[in-house]
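User: My collaborator sent over this chain with a note saying "see what the structure looks like." That's all I know about it. Can you take a look?
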Amino acid sequence: MASHDQYQLFRTAAGVAAIGWRGAAITSFRLPAPAASETERSVLRSLPGAARAEPPADIATVVEAAIRYFEGERIEFFETAVDPGQQPPFFTQVYAFVRTLGWGETTTYGAVARALDAGPEHARAVGQAMATNPVPLIIPCHRVMAAGGKIGGFSAPGGSTSKARMLELEGVPVTVAPVQHGFDF
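Assistant: Without extra context I'll predict from the sequence alone. Here is the result:
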């Protein structure tokens, strides 16, 4: 079994996505972008030196599931093996919790912090964990929103519009508000 990083690009209904793996675990996932070159640059930033390769059967299964997800099929990734790499312990807890959120199930940054017995002051750290999530969709960070029904940030191609589209695919009604340029109390 190869122990070096490999990746592959694949087309979805939402654009070109990428998956990276080491052995049987997914180490990187890049949400769809309009251009393959943008997706490839992004995956290579997270996996420098990775080789483009045909995915082994277990990884190919995840690729097929992701393609079906972006076509609107109800897909869950609960059993998918992931290796998010070296992370702060709190981020590891956040990722494990967020992986339990199913199709169309949303929560807030503050609720995740409370579920992990961390005070609401840790909501910002939950947001940072989501922003640096190396395997979005599989660790469904798009299902974690800001307080008050606000969509919150999203670091994937297309930003919060992509997050809103993913949530809408899952039947979650969302409105993307213009970026707030004011006080955030």
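A starting point for your reply to your collaborator: The chain has two domains: 6-71, 89-170.
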